[in-house]
Every structure is written in structure tokens, then in C-alpha cells.
């Protein structure tokens, strides 16, 4: 699914040897600011609160300052369809200002592996690509759960994120 000429969201399926079918969401957005400006925003885990729709009641629980590095653990709380959830991720790879990878240790998914990449564009902007390999809970019902609930929700969260990032990083005239 395409959202605009500077924003795209696609979802495909893959097979994981341990989990079976998984989904891979790729969301790409080009922002009109250089990587040196964009990456530091993402390096502050508390900015996730600005990029997450209010209805999820998303909050970072790990106290400030969070030293972002490989091995850093970050805890959050949120509500999914009104159900309170605790989420813990670990930064698996920290390579500023090019990429970082976070992986869910505990939370609402059977798998959540999120790679963030940042590439400079010829016009001085930044292409931000999020690749999320995920699988809903529900083993045999994961496909049905994904089709009717999870995929739509995750796509909508990234659409919201696109709008927020555009608002934050588009120069005002």
C-alpha cells in the first residue's frame, strides 16, 4: 500500500524455521532534513511517545537518560484495544547515524524485530526505512488475528508516525 510519493508501506509474508509464517512490514518515508538532524530524534527513546497514537496510551518506563547502545533494554507500557500491556525491547545493533535494531524480549507479539535505517538523499534529506518482522500471538490463529486486527493496526500506527515525522521535520515557511 502506498501513502504518498515520499511514503510507502508494504507487507509480505515469509517463513521462519521456528515460528512458521511471519509478516514483514516495510515503511519508508523521506524527510526533508539531513541524517545528522533526523537520527538524534530517533536516538531518544522518549520520542516514541510523540510517534505513537494517543489511543495506545504508550509510555516509556525506563528512567531518563537512556544510554542508547547495543544491549540497552527499554521498557514501555501501552494499551492494546484497552488491555494494558508491558513491553520490553533490547537494542541488538546500534550504528549511528545509519541504523539500529530493536527486538521485543517480552510484549504483545510472538516476534517483533524492528530494523531502522537512515540514508541520506541526493537533495539533503533522509530516507527512513522501518523493517518490522513480526508474528502475532495465537499460534494457529496468528494468520486470522493478523488479518483482522494486527496488520491494520500496525499499518495505521506507521501512517500516524509518517504524519508526525512530517510535522516535526518539514520546515515551516
What's a quick, concise take on this entry?
The chain is of the alpha+beta class.
Can you tell me about this structure?
It contains three helices and nine strands, in the order E-E-E-H-H-E-E-E-E-E-E-H. The model has no long low-confidence stretch (mean pLDDT 94). It is α+β, with helices and mostly antiparallel strands and 173 residues long. A hairpin with a 2-residue loop joins strand 7 and strand 8. It has a nine-stranded antiparallel beta sheet. Helix content is 24%, strand content 46%.
Architecture blueprint of SSEs:
Elements: E1 2-4, E2 7-16, E3 20-31, H1 35-43, H2 48-51, E4 59-60, E5 73-80, E6 83-95, E7 99-106, E8 109-120, E9 126-136, H3 142-169
Antiparallel strand pairs: 1-2, 2-3, 3-9, 4-5, 5-6, 6-7, 7-8, 8-9
Strand content: over 45%
Gap between N and C termini, in Å? Answer: 30 Å
CATH topology: Alpha-D-Glucose-1,6-Bisphosphate, Chain A, domain 4
Molecular shape: globular
| Overall mean pLDDT | 94
Largest sheet: 9 strands, antiparallel
| Order of strands across the main sheet | 1-2-3-9-8-7-6-5-4
Count the strands? 9
Structural Rg:
16 Å
Q: Uncertain spans, ≥5 residues at pLDDT below 50?
A: none
Identify the notable features of this structure and list them briefly:
Alpha-D-Glucose-1,6-Bisphosphate, Chain A, domain 4, alpha+beta, 173 residues, single chain
Amino acid at each position: 500500500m502506498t501513502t504518498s510519493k515520499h511514503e510507502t508501506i508494504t507487507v509480505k509474508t515469509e517463513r521462519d524455521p521456528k515460528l512458521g509464517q511471519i509478516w514483514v512490514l516495510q515503511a519508508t518515508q523521506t524527510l526533508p532534513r539531513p541524517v545528522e538532524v533526523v537520527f538524534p530524534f530517533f536516538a531518544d527513546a522518549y520520542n516514541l511517545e510523540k510517534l505513537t497514537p494517543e489511543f495506545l496510551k504508550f509510555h516509556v518506563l525506563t528512567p531518563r537518560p537512556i544510554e542508547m547502545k547495543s544491549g540497552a533494554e527499554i521498557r514501555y507500557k501501552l494499551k492494546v484495544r484497552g488491555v494494558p500491556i508491558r513491553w520490553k525491547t533490547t537494542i541488538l545493533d546500534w550504528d549511528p547515524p545509519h541504523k539500529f535494531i530493536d527486538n521485543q524480549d517480552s510484549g504483545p507479539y510472538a516476534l517483533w524485530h524492528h530494523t531502522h535505517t537512515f540514508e541520506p538523499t541526493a537533495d539533503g534529506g533522509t530516507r527512513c526505512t522501518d523493517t518490522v518482522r513480526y508474528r502475532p500471538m495465537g499460534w494457529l490463529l496468528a494468520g486470522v488475528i493478523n488479518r483482522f486486527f494486527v496488520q491494520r493496526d500496525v499499518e495505521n500506527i506507521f501512517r500516524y508516525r509518517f504524519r508526525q515525522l512530517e510535522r516535526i521535520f518539514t520546515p515551516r515557511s
